[in-house]
Amino acid sequence: xxxxxxxxxxxxxxxxxxxxxxxxxxxxxxxxxxxxxxxxxxxxxxxxxxxxxxxxxxxxxxxxxxxxxxxxxxxxxxxxxxxxxxxxxxxxxxxxxxxxx
Length: 101
Description:
Structural class: mainly alpha
Oligomer: single chain
Shape: elongated
Number of helices: 3
Mean pLDDT: 94
């Protein structure tokens, strides 16, 4: 199990990203618009850099929904390889069978 503080920190980041997504998108649109004056684009860049770092989507870490493990997480399932194996062996996941060769 991952530390509870790490999981909660990641949840706070998700919440902050959802809150500030529209504002970040608007500022990025201004920055990328070549038809706008350079001063206006620069001010938008300063506003974007003044926003909290944790409001950026890139700061979110994919974690297992069951254990909180940060590595080896399947995106489609939202769980780690270890949790997937345990649930598969116990027969909780339909269609998943243990293979050996």
